[in-house]
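User: Second chain of the day. Same drill as before.
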Amino acid sequence: MVFRTLLFFAGFSLLVSAGIAQSTGFGRDNFASARRKSGYTNITEVGYATGVNGTANALTVSTVNGFRAGDHVSAGLGVAYLRFSQGSSNVANFLPVFADLRAYIGGRTALMLVGDIGYGFLLDNVENRRGDMYLNPAVGIRTFLSSQSALTFSVGYLSQSVITRSPTNQSLNTATHTDNVSLKIGLMF
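Assistant: Same format as last time:
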């Protein structure tokens, strides 16, 4: 249900903003042709990641602070909160810290390529377990709402690894990871 609601909201938001821009000419003279300034940028996103092959579903919230070079590239450091759940009793919480690199192909509404990689800290106190690599490549759309703010929507692959140590042999580690398809909507300014 959460997945459908998020998908509906994302699609509706994109359609409304595109419809307003097309029907009113909003932005054509105001900011569509003006080159956006390089400098500080913040990207804040919320999302849902549905599990694949029996892995847990996740709710995600993330923020990235970094540098935007005109309209085509941004890079920054981000932090996220991931809440994986498979039923009410099987819950895991992570705090990934990651590098975020984005490329934009197009003008006011652009194809967005996202690469997030970092380390996800396990927030739960579980004996013999710790977080590990966080990976979230995605593809999406960025559409400017004004000269400096934009709406983003992306679909991607989300993987959070967990290392489990053997209680009898501390040198024996096993790694497991999630396989999720993530849907995110966000604001960039």
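Helices lie at 2-24, 28-32.

User: Great, on to the next one.
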